[in-house]
Automatic annotation (TrEMBL):
CDD domains: HTH_XRE. It holds the Pfam family HTH_31. GO terms for cellular component: cytosol. It comes from Candidatus Anaerotruncus excrementipullorum. This is Helix-turn-helix transcriptional regulator. InterPro entries: Cro/C1-type_HTH, Lambda_DNA-bd_dom_sf, TransReg_Diox_bact_type. PANTHER family: HTH-TYPE TRANSCRIPTIONAL REGULATOR (PTHR46797), METHYLPHOSPHONATE SYNTHASE (PTHR46797:SF1). Gene3D superfamilies: lambda repressor-like DNA-binding domains (1.10.260.40). SUPFAM superfamilies: lambda repressor-like DNA-binding domains (SSF47413).
């Protein structure tokens, strides 16, 4: 199982900026070196579990919140549920659902 460290870094940066923290302040609150925050945000380093926990605490989130979608298997339950919901749809229903899903996905991506 691979962890997407770039995705974690993106979440760390987003949360840090939302809280108005500098890398220096986040580093102090998490008990790590400021250069580590830079490396983490760029996905250039692997995080230890203790560092991940300290970052989550400093950012007011959970470890799950930082890991969310960074594990490939995290999507599987959703994809399985979607497949189950579509299993008994007829052609017309599938066509409507597909069109709606495309529009929803485009709208979500435009929101950023």
């Amino acid at each position: 199982m691979e962890i997407d460290y770039q995705a974690i870094g993106i979440r760390v940066r987003r949360l840090r900026k939302e809280k108005g923290l500098t890398q220096q302040v986040l580093a102090e609150q998490a008990g790590v070196e400021p250069s580590n925050i830079s490396h983490i945000e760029r996905g250039a380093t692997k995080l230890s579990l203790p560092t991940l926990v300290c970052l989550a605490n400093a950012l007011g989130t959970t470890v799950d919140g930082l890991l969310c979608d960074s594990l490939p298997q995290a999507r599987q339950p959703f994809l399985g549920e979607i497949a189950g919901l579509l299993a008994d749809c007829d052609h017309r229903e599938l066509k409507i659902i597909t069109s709606t899903l495309r529009a929803l996905r485009m709208s979500l991506r435009e929101e950023g």
